[in-house]
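SAMPLE LOG
Freezer: B-3
Tube label: C17
Construct: single chain, 311 aa
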Amino acid sequence: MHEKLEEYCDWQARGARVDREVGVIRGVKILGFTSRNGREYLPEALAAAVPLYEGAKVHVNHPAGRAARDYRDRIGSIRGVALRPGEGLFADFHFNPKHVLAEQLVWDAEHAPDRVGFSHNVEGRTSRRGETVVVEAITRVESVDLVADPATTRGLFEDAAGGRAWDALTVDELERHRPDLLAEVARQRSEEVEKLRAEVEALRAAEARQAREADARRVLAEYRLPDPETATGADRTIVSRPFLDLLIAAENEQSRRQLAHDRAALVEALRAVGRSRQGAAPTARDQGQVDRGLATGRTPDDVKTFVKSIT
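STRUCTURE (predicted):
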């Protein structure tokens, strides 16, 4: 059965594809495979119709009844028509940049592409499959008109009924049609990578510190110094937190062992002095000096100075 068909395609144009100077909106979708009007277009019907759409006139809105088209309604033409498998017919829309609606068209294409689209005015051969009208062939293309309520797609580049073959989508197509989307995906991925990298570095730093702390505790035990976890009273001064941090931050094991050796020697010197006093508890003239010496691992310059500091 032959009948006249009107079908709508809205667009999702992007600013990068609008060439204001020459008056071209590139890669617009003029027909999808599925219509909101309940029609399905066979792939072979669209393939055969490519030459019929080439050079098709574009008017503003459909004609009222059978009236002839007004010259003022002519806004451009369709060129470079091609069938994209799984998507539909695409082309470049060449419009008159001096047309009274040109600025509105460009603004909508760049900022509100859902407000405008194409509606083809054609004749075709159809059949029925249940409740669906199947378009088997497009036999004549009268025009492809610019309208406000397109129907076969959600946009110039997307099928309205979800018929887009997403498994056939390629990076090249995204680069051509949605460079903004690729850029956003790349930005998000970059942020995720940086966040993961920072987390990995933090984990590595924590693991390295744990390893150095374990080594520091081992060295303390080797020199029979108190365990920082269980030390109390005077022992807490011997293995204070600052001293433990000093051990952990040491450049290498040799430096760590030297610090532990010096601290153990200092402790032993204190104990020897205590024993030489015949068990009498020393009264320090400057207890702060003793504590600082224990905390930093620095011994007095000589025995006389050391003895003076604790008596």
